[in-house]
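Q: Hi! First time doing this. I have a protein sequence and I read that you can turn it into a structure. Is that right? Here it is:
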Amino acid sequence: MVTLAAQTFFAVDTFFWIGGFLITLGMLEQLKKSKNFLKFYIGSIIHRFIRIWPTYVIAILMFWKVAAYSGDGPLWRIYYNMSCSCNKGGVLWNMFFIDNFGDHGPAGIDYCFGWGWYLAVDFQLFLITPIFMYAYHRNKKLGWILTFMLFMTSVLIAFIQILVNDWHYPIP
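A: Yes, that's right. Below is the predicted 3D structure, encoded as structure tokens:
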């Protein structure tokens, strides 16, 4: 019997899609008003970084330095060990939105603030999105072609990784 819980793994894709859709709608309107794309692009990145980073850093520091020492119980050792991953330099990877590129140990669980990968990927997608929006803004056909090429490249890379690593989705 297939459970719905196994399918939730892909739910995060929905959030990336919704976030990308909303950012694109908002930024296309701003791009129409902007005279200088480079100024618009850098300003957008700085604005997003300043808006997210302070709260994110406080959350990481609370996880790393406070929360790990404020509890007890049978599973607390696991939580404490997760927070100790930050001592190995992983905290810097998180703070600069590149933690999804780091080495997370042989099992992939040696991860400081593990759920922060979503913000890292979201921020990285935000870095490239304005480039495609600018192409679309200047020439709709070129924008669609570039977007389609990016889509096909991502599908091809995923396919190659599946073949090379012999990955299988667990189907009962």
